[in-house]
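Hey, resending since the last one bounced:
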Amino acid sequence: MPVGLVVMKWDERVGTEILAKYPEEINISDKTLMQVYSTHEYSGESGMISLMVGSLNIASYYTGPDKGYYILLLLNLDDDPDAYESGLVDVSRIILQNLDEDAYLRLIPSLFQRLSVYPTLNDEQRLAITYQDEIKRMIINRLREEGVVSKSELMVWLKDKYKQGFVDLEGVLIELIKRDIIKEASVKGMPSELIFLTNDIIMMRVPPVQLLKDPADRGLPAQLAEDYRTESKRFFQNYRPSEQDNLTIIDVIINPQVYETLRLLRTAIVTRNDLEKLKKKGVDDVDEVLKMLWESKMIQVFQDERNNEYYALLSDFYVDLIFPKYLLNVIKEEYEKKSKASQVLIEYLSVLENSYLDLKSTAKSKD
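The structure tokens again:
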């Protein structure tokens, strides 16, 4: 597990300057900071490095010369720095988006907690965090329309569209490749590498079907079962999937305490006493968790005749990869309009075929 987070910048007069650290009591010498700076300076480009300095195991991300920030994650000796790379890219983006009036400073504790759990995230959580990232979402939406775009064109387009300024395209693309959402490849005759959409992300609220089948068997008093079904039905009659709603739910479920509570609520309808037991699993603030789930309309509370409260999942959330079959029509239209070179579209069909076979193979192994 990580032991600390440091935000550093290089100052021509004083050298390395610590802007923030968490927890406050951690110590890191000027000599160590200078080693981090020098190692990054060797390449001069944005990206992550890892190094051992005495008893310190450090994963450090440099935002590049435009902004010049260094985000250092201090690890235990047996931690794998590479497991935190995607998380550091994610946290760096959030820090740079909150530079005005040093707004990022109050975020440091929560960013440290976010980084700490990064290696333990499951596929659902990782996809949710991927979609939450504005840059990644912009790239996915662009590729949904065109299927394939050159890396050089994508860079120019992002700089024009993303007014906040900082875009680590290489880091973003690496993360999307790891998630099997895109593939990067060269095609003969094309001056720049191409980015292909290979899998799309589907996400939406879904009814908690297993709970609704037999609420009494899952912990809800029998006399409240029909009320539960009625509330869930009423919610989904008015529900319309939207990007904003998806982002609202993602903000909630990527919170480790909320996600641990959600795992329980997916299996049972529980009382306050049941929720209090989650403190053993790191859910320290049950009230705040319930508030977040209630405000995002993910739970409903029922009372029996003795005023005992039961917490039930009103709507669950589903996120997964799907094969983008719709892109076959996009390829057909681009071929007819000659808007993309034939060799690019032929390569894309081959890429999609391989992606489809891989997806089927993965699904079969899960079954």
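The radius of gyration is 24 Å.

Sorry for the duplicate.
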